[in-house]
Specification:
The structure is a single chain. The chain is built from five helices and eight strands, in the order βαβαββαααββββ. With 201 residues, the protein is α+β, with helices and mostly antiparallel strands. The model has no long low-confidence stretch (mean pLDDT 95).
Length: 201
């Protein structure tokens, strides 16, 4: 079984800005726990859980079928917000304005994929040899019950620490949807499957 996340991968301009801000975050230690870039991909989480190896092909087919019903999404990135995690660390992220189509995509994915997604992942189901913190394990196992539907709060996690610079709200078209293997801090470490939302005509 793997701890996975069904995500939107933001457009290149948003991804690049996320990486640039990540490198400017001040967490007092000089060590960034979420090094955005090729190792940890900027992303917008839509559905999480544990995926059994024998369910992989069926799961990917269902994701592709759902995705075919949606066009690319024009998302508004509104502000940088900062909240403490269970360890007391400041976690910064780019908030995304409420969007009817994004909410619909999230809800359909959770409803259609819930039978595949197990809430019993542990550290061994995460990517790599790095020790996974309890907060990450709990977030995956509780995603459907505590972070979905009315509790869905779309964002791009930027990293640990506080950003003191300026952020200009902007919008951008997003058409890449992927299933990723998760690492510590629920980072997207490996793309297991990817499909494009239909382009807007």
């Amino acid at each position: 079984m793997k701890a996975i996340d069904v995500v939107l991968l933001p457009a290149e301009n948003i991804s690049n800005e996320s990486i640039a801000i990540n490198q400017q975050l001040d967490n007092g230690s000089g060590m960034q726990q979420i090094p955005l870039g090729t190792k940890c991909l900027p992303h917008i989480s839509l559905a999480m859980g544990g995926l059994k190896d024998e369910d992989t092909d069926s799961f990917f087919k269902e994701v592709a079928a759902i995705t075919s019903q949606f066009s690319a999404l024009n998302l508004n990135y509104t502000a940088i917000e900062c909240h403490p995690n269970d360890k007391g660390e400041a976690i910064s992220g780019i908030a995304i304005e409420e969007n009817v189509e994004l909410q619909k995509l999230h809800e359909i994915l959770v409803c259609k994929l819930e039978s595949f997604l197990k809430n019993e992942v542990n550290q061994e189901h995460f990517h790599g040899d790095e020790t996974t913190n309890t907060s990450s394990v709990n977030w995956v196992n509780e995603y459907i019950t505590k972070h979905s539907f009315k509790q869905f709060s779309p964002h791009i996690t930027l990293g640990t620490g506080i950003f003191s610079g300026n952020f200009t709200p902007q919008n951008s078209l997003t058409n890449r949807l992927a299933v990723c293997h998760l690492g510590n801090y629920c980072t997207c470490r490996e793309i297991l499957f990817e499909v494009e939302l239909d382009s807007i005509t």
